[in-house]
Amino acid sequence: MSDTATEREVMEYDVIIVGAGPAGLACAIRLKQLKPELMVAVIEKGAEVGAHILSGAVIEPAPLDELLPGWREKPPAVCIPVERDELAYLTTSSKRKLPTPPQQKNHGNFIVSLGAMCAWLAPQAEDLGVDIFPGYAAAGIHYLEDGAVGGVIIGDMGVNREGQPKDTYMQGIEIHAPLTVLAEGCRGHLSKELIAKFKLDADSDPQVYGVGIKELWQVAPGKCQPGLVQHSIGWPLDTKTYGGSFIYHMDKDRVAVGFVCALDYADPEFSPFEAFQQFKHHPTVKPLFEGGEILSGGARTIIEGGAQSLPRVEMPGALLIGDAAGLLNLPKIKGTHQALRSGMLAAVHIAEQGSGNGFDQALRASPIMQELQKVRNIRPGFNKGLWRGLLTAAIETVTAGKLPRTLRNHADHDSLTKLQAMKPVERRWVKRDLAPRDRLASVYFAATDHDEDQPVHLQILDPDVCVTRCAEEYGHPCTQFCPAHVYEMVEDSESAAGKRLQINAANCVHCKTCDIKDPYQIINWVTPEGGSGPNYQNL
Amino acid sequence: MKILVGIKRVVDYNVRIRVKSDASGIDTDGVKMSINPFDEIALEEALRTREAGLAEEVIVVSLGGNECQQQLRTGLAMGADRAIQVDTAEDLQPLTIARTFLKVIEKEQPGLVILGKQAIDGDNSQTAQMLAALWDRPQATFVSEMELSGDKVTVVREVDAGLETIEVDLPAVISVDLRLNEPRFVKLPDIMKAKRKPLEVIALDELGVVSENNLEVSNYSPPPVREKGILVEDTAQLVTELKTRGLV
User: Fold this and answer.
1) Contacts of B184 in chain A (CB under 8 A)
2) What's the rounded Cα separation, in Å, for the pair B48 and B56?
3) Which of A10, A168, A451 has the most B C-beta neighbours within 10 Å, making it the best mutation to test the interface with B?
4) Which residue of A has its CA nearest to B192?
5) Do strands B9-11 and B33-35 pair parallel, antiparallel, or not at all (unpaired)?
6) How many domains does chain B have?
């Protein structure tokens, strides 16, 4: 955040929540239910609530029953009860059904659009008196004299590419509050800054992540089976790359399809987007999409580290909740119920204690943490490959995580094998003809919008590395792992190396893959002008 | 003087719209709605005029159900002084909209009415022109520059032949085009202030306007899917292909 000579205007609240996702909104709602006199505000960088969030998603409704009894009479716009679960192992040509593990039994759960659900929660929060401000990005932390968090600084708007004010320049205000709740979701940029500053991760394992890429399809009539939940593992991934697919059949002939790849993969030339597109071309999958059309699509990273990687979630003046902390239950592939619960737990704690003190302990003693503890060894079990991982998962499931061992997580950005040491991977991928043709055609469906004349929000801390070390060691993996084709190596006769990195920042869908997977950790994602970014519809 | 600005709630320009499967219209289920971009430019110009000391009050007017209050509040947050919602559940067409605006004009007696040149959903570009005719006052449309002086305004219009500069007697109707200005961002504290500014709701029939929709839309269809092209080997094949398609 740049220091400006003029003092910023200040607004004051009792609690400021960053992020209008399930955790942030649940926290706001619960706070007002318990203490209606509290002044609570939620800041959201998306142009509207739901614009930047996406998930499969199959949710466990119990936390909603607790937060909003009677919600089932007025459910969110997209809410389909689960009818049937399927888990399959794919080879290049076949699909073998596997028994559904208990964590993936979804009886009683609902297929939802997480974006539509947040857009449904927001007016309910506003009715309780919460001030929600979409279109404004919390770009920096306001620190007090003693180093505690005192609120957030809203990003300046109307700044040109060189950092100079344009005619429309508007300085961002500061929002001061005795308590700031970070609910930015996976790899939030302010959360990242605070975790580093307060060394919140000193006693936990490195965090690990996956990237999820999703499309919402309108399929030809007769193909959709509402309530069917399908997951797969195996092809198109090799046994060393952890991940899998989901297909959730909704209403009105709509099908949500997506693919998650763990970001600890080793092949620098691997493209998670391509893996997703390949999956759709599997002989048992493709017929579903033939004759259909894409309605919307996008990508977002998923936090996978669970219990071992959970940082301290409390610091002077602030708390981390939801996936900004990292509460997703990976074997269930569900994080929304955890996010909702953590938001409510934080609200109860704040209402009772009058501050965030002791929240970390409260979280670790809660059912939220117990759920993570139970499944803590499943994700790291896959570090040894698919078959060992499945075996570990089976053992851990049967023993309900009670074995006195905790497998460790290792940082994703250290996992790439150098090109020279890389053995060619036999992927058996096919020629594709389903939409979208490539990442540029795909990014169209995210409706992502950035004023081109603004500072590039993907900061490369040492650009020389790109054309020297990275060119040789890894061959520019950023040009492969970004689902939106933001990074490109282009010819440049003026550069010593004959090429340079071009950042097409306007394509960015705010997934944070680059911030996580870059092997040199020189990419720093910061928030662009508020209101920029994707405009996801029903994702 | 007072300036009246018309703002319309439309599907946001970023939304990837789709035709409903029964061809009856555009699917607006759960899509983002915003102020029509040209109306924002109109409002910005009104605000600058007031800030230059040439007007006392800027009133934003919208026609629609309670959902358009969201756009009216945004207009107030940008700096408008007052808002009027003409409440109706019907989908109004330009002639009825113009008649409604005339009623509001009779009530408010503005010195200037600024509208967007067209709404990005209907793309009709008729309301400003019809309103001026009904009001029997001058109109200046597709305005990209505007300068007020006393009871006249000098405007530059973007027309097919180029740029046309005309002088218009007030009161008048102006419709604005893209290059007139760049609308300001809304400051957060102003959103809070806007909640306390007056927003008046008047029913359409209270104004004595009967909506007569003279146009009936019979069908909506998406543009035809572009056919895949073919690569030809040589000129001979090109000629054959052209001939087969009756193009030469």
Assistant:
1) 168, 170
2) 11
3) A168
4) A131
5) antiparallel
6) 1
Same domain for A446 and A322? no
Inspect the interface and report whether the beta carbons of A48 and B32 lie closer than 8 Å. yes
Q: Cβ contacts (< 8 Å) between B32 and chain A: which residues?
A: 47-48, 51, 535, 537
Residues of chain B contacting A296 with CB distance shorter than 8 Å: 16
For residue A1, pLDDT over 80 is answered with no
pLDDT at A529: 97
State the SS3 of A32-81. Answer: HHHCCCCCEEEEECCCCCCCCCCCCCEECCHHHHHHCCCHHHCCCCCEEE
CB contact under 8 A, B182 and A170: no
Residue A78 C-alpha, separation from nearest chain B C-alpha, in angstroms: 10
Q: Do B14 and A449 touch (CB under 8 A)?
A: yes
What residues have CB less than 8 Å from B134, skipping those under 6 apart? B98, B99, B102
Residues 6+ apart with CB under 8 A from A522: A460, A461, A462, A465
| Interface contact flag, A11 B189, Cβ < 8 Å | yes
In sequence order, the β-bridge partners of residue A261 are A211, A243
Tokens of B58: 């800027």
Distance from CA of B152 to the nearest CA of A (A): 27
Chain-chain contact of B32 with A51 (C-beta, under 8 angstroms): yes
The predicted complex's ipTM stands at: 0.90
Nearest by CB to residue A154, choosing from B31, B183, B188, is: B188
Of A374, A391, A412, the last residue of a domain is A374
The amino acid occupying position A68 is L
* Residue A492 lies in domain: 439-525
- In a domain, residue A146? The reply is yes
Residue from A537, A538, A539 whose CB has the most chain B CBs within 10 Å, to mutate: A537
Local structure of residue A16 (DSSP, 8 states): E
Residue A267 Cα, gap to closest chain B Cα (Å): 35
The verdict on A456 and A313 lying in the same domain is no
Please answer yes or no on whether B182 and A48 come within 8 Å at the CB atom.
no
d(Cα B32, Cα B17) in Å, to the nearest integer?
10
Q: What is the pLDDT of residues A386-438, one digit of tens each?
A: 999 999 999 999 999 999 999 999 999 999 999 999 998 888 899 999 999 99
Same domain, A361 and A445: no
Residue A340 falls within a domain, yes or no? Answer: yes
- pLDDT of residue A466 exceeding 60: yes
- The reported pLDDT for the residue numbered B214 is 85
B192/A537 touch (CB, cutoff 8 Å), yes or no? no
Are residues A331 and A464 both part of a single domain? Answer: no
CATH number at residue A15: 3.50.50.60
Whether residue A489 is predicted with pLDDT greater than 60 in this model: the reply is yes
CA distance B209 to chain A (A): 33
Main-chain dihedrals φ then ψ at residue A82, nearest 5 degrees: -70, 135
Report pLDDT for A6.
67
- Catalytic residues of A, by residue number, are 55, 300, 336, 482, 508, 511, 514
8 Å CB contact between B207 and B99: no
List of chain A residues whose C-beta atoms are within 8 Å of the C-beta of residue B192: 11, 131
Q: Which of A338, A353, A374 is the last residue of a domain?
A: A374
* Mean of the per-residue pLDDT values of chain A: 95
Question: What gap in Å lies between CA B216 and CA A363, rounded to an integer?
Answer: 60
Residue A164, number of CB atoms within 10 A of its CB: 9
In chain A, the number of structural domains is 2
The whole-number mean pLDDT for each consecutive block of 10 residues of chain B, a chain of 248 residues, reads 97 89 83 95 98 97 96 98 96 94 97 97 95 98 96 96 96 97 96 96 92 86 85 92 89
The CATH number covering residue A506 comes to: 3.30.70.20
CATH number at residue B89: 3.40.50.620
What pLDDT, on the 0 to 100 scale, is given for residue B20?
85
